[in-house]
Specification:
The structure is a single chain. The chain is built from five helices and five strands, in the order βαβαβαβαβα. By secondary structure, the chain is of the alpha/beta class. Strands 2-1-3-4-5 form a five-stranded parallel sheet, sandwiched between helices. β3, α3 and β4 form a beta-alpha-beta unit.
């Protein structure tokens, strides 16, 4: 195992749909890359996790965030905007993983420094392929920033 993957890759999934959470967990469980997946269900929880607030005071900084746009309490758009304007969080890659195909959402997400925008497929096999593609690209091809708390 190379130095990059000596520790599990830490992924934060910000998703309020239990079905999508289950599919993502299944896709990552069968992964060839050792990973841990933490899940939060709304935007405020995501920011608390990333900022290690409240019940997340011992949270481990994720290597990657998979972020839905439509979330309760604080939207994914707000989470992305706040995280990318925070010097302590802006280097974490954020992948927007959403059902929205709106050009406005795509453009706005990239304007707010999203690292990628991916549409969630409806089909189970395609969903698994998308998760594996994200994982392959971000954890085998891309060099991520070194972890700094």
């Amino acid at each position: 195992m190379d130095e990059l993957h000596a520790e599990p890759i830490k992924i934060l999934l910000v998703e309020d749909n239990p079905g999508d959470v289950r599919l993502t967990k299944e896709a990552l469980k069968d992964s060839k890359i050792h990973n841990t997946l933490e899940v939060v269900e709304d935007g405020q929880e995501a920011l608390d996790y990333l900022r290690k607030k409240g019940k997340y005071k011992n949270a481990i900084r994720p290597d990657l965030v998979l972020l839905d746009l439509d979330l309760p309490n604080k939207s994914g758009r707000e989470v992305l905007e706040e995280a990318k304007s925070d010097p302590n969080l802006r280097s974490i890659p954020f992948i927007i993983l959403t059902v929205s195909t709106s050009d406005k959402d795509v453009l706005r997400s990239y304007d707010m420094q999203a690292n990628a925008y991916v549409n969630k497929p409806i089909d189970l096999d395609q969903f698994v392929r998308v998760i594996h593609s994200i994982e392959d690209f971000w954890f085998t091809i891309v060099k991520l920033p070194s972890k700094s708390e």
